[in-house]
Every structure is written in C-alpha cells, then in structure tokens.
Amino acid sequence: DVKVTQSSRYLVKRTGEKVFLECVQDMDHENMFWYRQDPGLGLRLIYFSYDVKMKEKGDIPEGYSVSREKKERFSLILESASTNQTSMYLCASSYPASGEIYGYTFGSGTRLTVV
Amino acid sequence: GNSVTQMEGPVTLSEEAFLTINCTYTATGYPSLFWYVQYPGEGLQLLLKATKADDKGSNKGFEATYRKETTSFHLEKGSVQVSDSAVYFCALYKRGGGNKLTFGTGTQLKVEL
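^ Those are the sequences you sent over. The predicted structure of the assembly is below.
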C-alpha cells in the first residue's frame, strides 16, 4: 500500500523554537506539498516542490521554509515558531502528470501546538 | 484565479437521511474535480473524482456529477451512516494553474442515530 508518512502526529513546541516537520513518501512521486489546515479556512498551500532541490512558494509561505534533498523526503521548517502557527499540517505527494487524474496522496497530518 | 466554494457546515443528519453537500467552482477551461474525506484525527483520503464534463464519480455510496453548465460538483448519498461523519473537501485541479489542487473550506458532516 502506497504511503505518505509524517513523522509526528502531535508536537508541542515553544515560541521561538526552530521546528522541523518531516514527510516521506514511498511512491517515487516527483511532486510534494505542504498544507496547513485551520477551521473555517480549509487547506492552504504553504510550499511545494516539483523535484529534488526545487521549491516554490504557495499561498502562505511567510514564516516557513522547506528542504528537499532527496526525492522521497520533504521537510517543512518553522524558523522561529509562533503561536499563530499552531495548526494541523498536511503533507501530500503526486506524480506530475497524474495529479489531474488521481489527485494527491496525503499523510495523516501533524498537529502542532506552539505555546 | 481558481477557487472552490462549499456550503457551510456543520451539516447534521439522522442516519439513513439523504445527503447533499454543495460545491461550485471558478476556473477557466475544464479542470478535474475531486471530493476528499477526512475522518477524525486523520489525513485526507480521495473519495471520488471526475475529470471531464458530465462524468459521474462514485465510491462507497457517494456520487457527484461534473456539471460544466452550472460549474458544480455536488456530493450526494442516498442513505448516510454514522460512520460517514467526517469533513468533506471539494477540490479542483487545473493543469497550467500551477498544477496543484485548490481546495474548498470543507464541510463537516455529523450523522446521528
């Protein structure tokens, strides 16, 4: 069964900490995505990547960065965590050409609380 | 730009009731349309999809028809169960629009006995 695995289901971090959220997929997908999910706002795209070492800003990149050193791994970095970054974070992946046919495969999410 | 509008929730139904969750979209051309479901504490799972006008996607008793004339993709189920309680997201994929999914805000469904 194909998978997108997010390393933590729940995280609690302090304001100002540097936070790493990890995502690994085993489907050899070129495309990977990070979303955050908030009540009433749905899913908002933070960053995405079409290939190793490539990244593009999504709709809400401020306060975040990403790293993609290997095809299967896409990391989201909160440089200095703030309370307004408390949220559910979802990672997803797809093949470039199959996104319009099959959509994305999502991980189970990481619920991050910044205190 | 591309956008998806879903009906506000929560939607509360009794078991075996008929479900409709409205979804309309704004996009040029012919996007692909999707419904995802998110059960409590989990990520999103693809529920059904339609890639061209008049296609009907179906899965697990849910169905939705791609209506180009009304730019809609409403989700329906004839008889809901308690286990259908979840958040449902409508999404569109438009090639050339950054090649990425655009989501609606989600609609929470609660089904009671």
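The radius of gyration of chain B is 14 Å. The first strand of chain B starts at residue 3 and ends at 6.

Shout if you want it in another format.
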